[in-house]
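Cont'd.
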Amino acid sequence: MIAVDWGTSSARAYRLAPDGRLLERRESAGGILRVPEGGFPAALAGMVGDWLAAGETRVLLSGMVGSRQGWQEAPYLACPAGVDDLARAVVPVPFDGATVRLVPGLSTEDAGGTPEVMRGEEVQIFGALDFGALAGDGRDALLCLPGSHAKWVRVAGGRIAGFSTHMTGEAFAALKDHTILGRMMTGTAEPGPAFEAGIARSAEAGGLLHHLFGTRTLGLFGRLAPEDAASYLSGLLIGHEVASAMTGPAPVYLVGSGPLMALYGRAIALKGGEAIAGDPDIAARGLGLIGERTEWA
Amino acid sequence: MIAVDWGTSSARAYRLAPDGRLLERRESAGGILRVPEGGFPAALAGMVGDWLAAGETRVLLSGMVGSRQGWQEAPYLACPAGVDDLARAVVPVPFDGATVRLVPGLSTEDAGGTPEVMRGEEVQIFGALDFGALAGDGRDALLCLPGSHAKWVRVAGGRIAGFSTHMTGEAFAALKDHTILGRMMTGTAEPGPAFEAGIARSAEAGGLLHHLFGTRTLGLFGRLAPEDAASYLSGLLIGHEVASAMTGPAPVYLVGSGPLMALYGRAIALKGGEAIAGDPDIAARGLGLIGERTEWA
């Protein structure tokens, strides 16, 4: 089977053995925003044409490729949802030379009735749960997927019960690049003392919009060096996010890769939680699990 | 006396009678960022040269003109501070043809020890208090000055006891213009039902960074129209600010002008407070009060 985690800015393709083992992987910068109208069949053939020629007949896609801006829209499946639910809800996509299916994203509502959505993270989550790194059998867990739109996910009884999205990463970039705060920043966010000072500050009274201004005043008074200011701002924002999203000092399963993992791990530890980091290729494993359960004929 | 409220992007000059009465006012786009190095004497002469020629000999300046980027730096005066304290702390500025003094800005620290600063707002605050629109004698009050960096100010015994700054306006602009949220916005922020929905949302669990994402999902699900999205986002942000800054359902004296006044007034009312709007020319009155107490010789 071929599995493709196809997002907005990049795509990761995996060739899986019948038992789910990862045989080969490749990455492409051809995210859905780079694909011209009607160009998805050609883009898929360009990415995995040799695997198809070598005899693969099944292709399972996840991520923004199933959004309105993608190949074909796969309606969101409502939570709670498990791998079996996702396998039953895959959407067929016409393609010459293979059977192609789209995994739908998930939707939920929070207590106040505001909707929530994800596309692509659901396969990572089930891949992560299958690693068994969590205490117990991984059927009840709290997961965090750092990113420009970070997701916090509650798993109950092996299914995704609900989740919430936090615009922390995108807010950080907008504040750093497009407000007065960025003028006094020279470095990137690192998980050192300035980041921890931001985390500590996030626990004080005053609210995030007030705490943001402190990034500037600490700089004005020479108490925050320009090379530490991005770390402090990151600590403020991630600290506010973790305080809102962590329901207690439980273990949090961190899913993802890159520099955000260390920052979130530190923030979770400082809030009394235990951060457990996952594997970068979990999307392949999650797609494999769904593929095993999919009705391909 | 001549009073000039000289900020980053504009300047307002006032000619005051000896009893403090406003004789004449004029506004200029010549904020300090437009003044070339060493160009402040010429800029002042250009703004009020005819008043000086007509016999005025005293000029009192406030605002960012007293910052490191301005004419001359006037060190911050620490809170608590009243008009008499400010009058004693004015800084002389060399100028041919008149006696020029700079009113210093104020500094304070919040409970966590993070510094806070203002420059220019202090004269508006004392001008506002002098209007007597507040219950009692205006010696104890909570004031809010909306703006890209909104200030909340506690006045006790007629002096500014402390204040906090919220980057709400600048965060709104950065989020609207430089994140995915802005892609689905067509209008400006107005104090109608969408704004009130944002205020109500701000009181729910989840935190601001999570609430931000709801602006997008409500749009995706057709529950927030593009022309209402800016109002909703504004309600979210101002709602979070007001909830953090309002210490109880007391009257809040709103100081300023422009469209933000109606938004803050509505947000304060929805949180159970009473918003009282001030006069736009209060800076002139505040500078007049300080000028009366200044040692000019």
